[in-house]
C-alpha cells in the first residue's frame, strides 16, 4: 500500500492582521533562535505591535474603552 503524500503547509495571508500558519511550525528568528508552535493554527504578527514576537497577540486591533458607569 503506497504512503499518502504529505499535505503541504497552508499559509493564509490576511488583509488587516496576522499571517496564519496551519499545522505545527518552527520559526527561525533574526538572531538565529528558533521557536516552535504545535498549535493547529499559529498567528504570526506582521504589524510589530505584539508583546509576544513573533506571535500575534491582537495588539493591532483598535481598542475602544466603554465609559465607566454607562
Automatic annotation (TrEMBL):
Name of this chain's protein: CDGSH-type Zn-finger protein
Domain Iron-binding zinc finger CDGSH type: 22-66
Organism per entry: Pseudonocardia parietis
Keywords tagged on the record: 2Fe-2S, Iron, Iron-sulfur, Metal-binding
Keyword Metal-binding: yes
Pfam families: zf-CDGSH
InterPro entries per record: FeS-contain_CDGSH-typ, MitoNEET_CISD
Amino acid at each position: 500500500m503506497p504512503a499518502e503524500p504529505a499535505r503541504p503547509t497552508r499559509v493564509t495571508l490576511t488583509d488587516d492582521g496576522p499571517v496564519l500558519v496551519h499545522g505545527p511550525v518552527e520559526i527561525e528568528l533574526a538572531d538565529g533562535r528558533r521557536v516552535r508552535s504545535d498549535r493547529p493554527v499559529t498567528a504570526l504578527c506582521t504589524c510589530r505591535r505584539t508583546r509576544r514576537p513573533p506571535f500575534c497577540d491582537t495588539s493591532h486591533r483598535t481598542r475602544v474603552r466603554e465609559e465607566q458607569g454607562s
